[in-house]
Amino acid sequence: MTFLDPVNVADGKVDANLILQLYDRLDTAVWIFDFDHKRYLWANRKTLEITEADSLEELQSRDLGADMSPAVEQRLRQYQQDFCKGDVSFSEIWTLYPKGKPKVLQIEMSGVQLRDGRMALLCEGREHHEQQPETLRSAEALLHTTVMIALFSKDGSPLYRNTASRASCITLETRFPDQFVREEDVKDIFDLVEQERTLKFVAHVKTSLGFKWHELTIRACHDAVSGQPAYLVSEIDVTELHETKERAQYLASHDTLTGLSNRTFLQERLTHILNTADTKNQTATLYLFDLDDFKLVNDSLGHAAGDVLLQLVAEELKAIAGPEDIVARLGGDEFLICHLEKPGSVDPDWFGRSLLRSFAKPQVLEGKRRQVGLSIGYAHYPDDGRDIDQLMRHADLALYQAKSDPSAKCVRFRDRMRRLRDEHRAIKKDLERALQKNEFILYYQPIACTRTDKVVSGEALLRWQHPERGMVGPDDFIKIAEDAGLIDEIGTWVAEQVAHLQHRLHNLQYAVPLALNVSPRQLSDSSFLSLMQSLPLATGCDPSDISLEITESVILGDIPNARETLTALKHCGYQIVIDDFGTGYSNLAYLHNYPIDGIKIDRMFMEDIGTGGEIVKLILSLANALDAGVVAEGVETIEQRSWLSQNGCNRYQGYLYSRPVPEERFLSMLETQSQIAAM
Fold first, then answer.
1. Which of 391, 454, 520, 679 has the most crowded Cβ, counting Cβ within 10 A?
2. Which residue intervals define the domain GGDEF in the entry (predicted)?
């Protein structure tokens, strides 16, 4: 209803105007406030007097929202919400500022519903005569402060809440114990307050904005109205500070990229898990592993792709690990799992093999399926070590063995591994010296014609003239050079030496092309293409007389942008040859997509010749379809050479013709061949 409508009072003898006159005679200010528009809807004469308004129309025109503080606006919204929920009323001391002059009123507030359905505020205000400055200022402070202040009875029921506290609580009736997330936080709390009189702590609480962290200060006191014992509670929202602290603690103990535990947190967690193993008579196994060719991914696809791969691996490991296991990233591409095995396990090493199987399926990286290989080293507690440091050292030695031996990707620690590690460390150090002192040399193995037995080409093979160990073959140091990051520098030296020799052969009028091996790691390095493009000008070589031998893994997708790189090398004039063909899984569909000039049949297929050579015939047919030349490797008997000649393979390489020989011996062979041809 509105105040201007007729009302049926005293049989219709009293109308609305008379009621308005009655209100105007009251010594109490009465007004209706519009929450939504922040304006007076109606007021009696006493209200006009207090607000110093010339008329009701002038009072209604005032926009109270123009200079309303956020705290006052928040308090009014709280009233509106409470009135909509139920028939409640409030009595508070407010200071109004009509035309800038403070007027202190004791206001009784209740809700009144307007005809349009909205809730408005009905106020009855009387001047508050005990206007002590401290009282007024404390009331204003309680209204505007962001500190949540509330008074609770001894049973936890709310007696008073300031604006901030009311905004935080879920309902007006929320009891003090009910606002805590964890029951243990509030257990016996009032007993402690009675003992200490003041208690301060941080707790996880339920608020109107969700779960928060509050710092609470509780003091035992009395309710000024009833005189009964009560508790004054002040709360400060420390959520941001608490979460920042928790975040700092999390960052200090976890890897930011993968969310796994890091080295810092590992010592504490490993100590706990080893104690658990002792207590429950379990076997704890420390697995260390890293990703095969991770540097290749970083170098070829970029560090962002490398990060994505690490995150994929971390998720896979978390899925594999048991609830009591520890999964950690130690740095780079190195990870750790500490796995607890129940007593009496027949095969405690099964977990390591399951890790390998889990990564047998390709991972999708940048829209492409890529095979991710693992090398794993592990040590059992307590058999392989009695403390964390010893277990870590021994698992690391086993990992080193796994990385050095491609046939065994999951290796348990053995005492002999210490010696192997020391040998590899010595070789790495010697390799660095070898590059500085030019201790590397190239041998050349002739490639001959199966029909004429003449040298038609030669493959460059790396050797190391070690000052103490003598001549060292590539199988004994190439893998170590790759792990030490020295392979690119060695590869550059090889390419330059081959280019110089090819130019020399041209000047000697020997039409004998040369070949050199290119590792996947070299091919993924952008500087390799630049090097090969610069060699003709730097050395005078003819790229068309130099073959670059690559492995099948390059064309099977292990090297991103391999086709583009090989095409660029082909445009420079180099010949592209697949080495050790047949050991991978190449097929015609793959090969047709690459600029392949030749195929070298792996030596293991020479044994097939004795039983009919069906596999070799198939490879020769494939090469013919590709219009690619063929070289058979590992030919050791005259019968093998004859069979190859009869079945259309015109070139061969192996001990039947010659072992690899030094450069000058190779040149001597070519000179002798030239002299014979001239006779």
1. 391
2. 282-416
CB crowding 381-403: b at 16 or more within 10 Å, else e: beebbeebebbbebbbbbbbbbb
Count the residues in the chain: 679
**Residue 45 token pair:** 């004469």
The residues spanned by each domain of the chain are: 16-131, 145-244, 254-415, 430-678
Q: What does the alpha-carbon distance between residue 439 and residue 466 come to, in Å, rounded to a whole number?
A: 7
Residue bearing tokens 């052969």: 505
For the record, the structure tokens of 649 come out as 């393979």
Q: What mean pLDDT is predicted for residues 259-277?
A: 82
Fold of 254-415: Alpha-Beta Plaits (3.30.70)
For 436, phi and psi rounded to 5 degrees? Answer: -70, -35
Contact call for residues 270 and 261 (beta carbons, < 8 A): no
- The stretch 452-471 carries a mean pLDDT of 94
Hey, how many other C-beta atoms are within 10 angstroms of the C-beta on 594?
18
CB atoms within 10 A of CB 355: 23
Can you tell me the distance from the alpha carbon of 503 to that of 575, in angstroms, rounded to the nearest whole number? 16
Q: Name residues whose C-beta falls within 8 Å of residue 336's C-beta, 6 or more positions apart in sequence.
A: 266, 286, 287, 288, 289, 326, 327, 328, 329, 330
Spatial strand order of the sheet with 103-113 comes to: 39-43, 29-34, 119-127, 103-113, 89-96
Model pLDDT, residue 137: 64
At 4, the pLDDT band (50, 70, 90 cuts) reads: very low
Does domain 16-131 fall into CATH 3.90.230.10? no
- The alpha carbon of 48 is separated from its chain's Cα centroid by a whole number of angstroms, namely 66
Q: What is the value of pTM for the model shown?
A: 0.54
Cα–Cα distance, 255 to 499 (Å, whole number): 47
Q: Residue holding tokens 């590899």?
A: 424
Q: Token pair of 481, please?
A: 């050079």
User: How many Å apart are CA 128 and CA 106, to the nearest integer?
Assistant: 6
Structural contact between residues 333 and 265, judged by C-beta atoms closer than 8 angstroms = no
Q: Is it true that 16-131 and 430-678 share their CATH fold? A: no
First to last CA, the chain: 130
CATH of 430-678, one of 3.50.50.60, 3.20.20.450, 3.90.1150.150, 3.30.300.30: 3.20.20.450
Q: Note the Cα 50 to chain centre separation in Å.
A: 65
Q: What token pair was written down for 297?
A: 């991914």
Which residues lie closer than 8 Å to 618 by C-beta, 6 or more apart? Answer: none
Indicate if the alpha-carbon torsion angle 547, 549, 554, 559 is positive or negative.
negative
Q: What is the dihedral of CA 605, 610, 615, 617, to 10 degrees?
A: 110
Phi and psi at 177, nearest 5°, equal -65, -25
pLDDT of residue 364: 74
Kindly provide the residue ranges of all beta strands, DSSP E only, lying in 44-117, ordered along the sequence: 89-96, 103-113
Per-residue model confidence as pLDDT tens digits over 153-199:
888 888 888 878 888 888 878 888 888 888 777 777 777 887 777 88
How buried is 437 (Cβ within 10 angstroms: 0-12 exposed, 13-18 middle, 19+ buried)?
A: exposed
